[in-house]
Structures are given as C-alpha cells and as structure tokens.
Specification:
This protein has 133 residues and is mainly α. Helices cover 69% and strands 5% of the residues. Strand 1 and strand 2 (42-44) form a beta hairpin. The model has no long low-confidence stretch (mean pLDDT 83).
Length: 133
Amino acid sequence: MKEQIAIKLNWAIAGVSAILAILLLTVAKACPAMIETAAGGSCHMSCHYTVKAGVLLAVITIIFAAESALRRRLLAFTNVVLGIVIVLLPSVLGICAMKEMACHTSALCMRICGVVIALIGIIQLLAKGEKDL
C-alpha cells in the first residue's frame, strides 16, 4: 500500500512538472523585449534565461520522478531540492523590475509549482519507511 502511494506521488510530481513546462512554453512566456548593448547589439533580458532554466528544471524533475516511479525507488530528497531550486530560480537569475511585465506570470507559475513539488517531496520524506520503496 505504501509503495503504491509513493508511486502515485511520483507521478503527481511528474504531472506538476509537465504542467509547469507547458505553462512556461505557452502561456507564461518570458518578455519578448531585447536589451541593447553598448556595442549596439542586442541580447535577451534575464527573464528569458530564467524561463529557459525553469523549463529545463521541469524536464529534469519529470525524468527523476518517472525514473523513481518506474524503478520503485524513492527519491524524496531529490524532489524537495528540485522544488526549492524551482522556487528560488526567479530570484537568483532574475526577472524584470516592472510588475506589468509578462515574466512576473512565469515567476509566479514557477514558485507555485516549485512549492507543490517540494511539499510532495516532504510528504514522501515523512512517509518513508525503514526501507527504500
């Protein structure tokens, strides 16, 4: 019974991560604006790289959760760490200062999904028995 719950929680993490990746690629995109450099060129704003890193972390979380479910290994601590990293990503890499910019929606999506992933990982840690599932 405990093993089936752990497997379902891993698939829930994979689902939340898939939702995050889809949201970041479709609805909650980064700002389309570019920054002009001193040399006259242009480059993406930091929020562009924040969203790309968020998609990458979501895919990594999906892979870890699916591997954990299929091999019946509990990677609860990894799930907690990945959730916390997803939550902190907009603060570390940065988003636009203006509240009206589109990247604030992507940061909110990352924070909500990251908290859900970390909470499920904490539930897995607390429910973990004496042996690995």
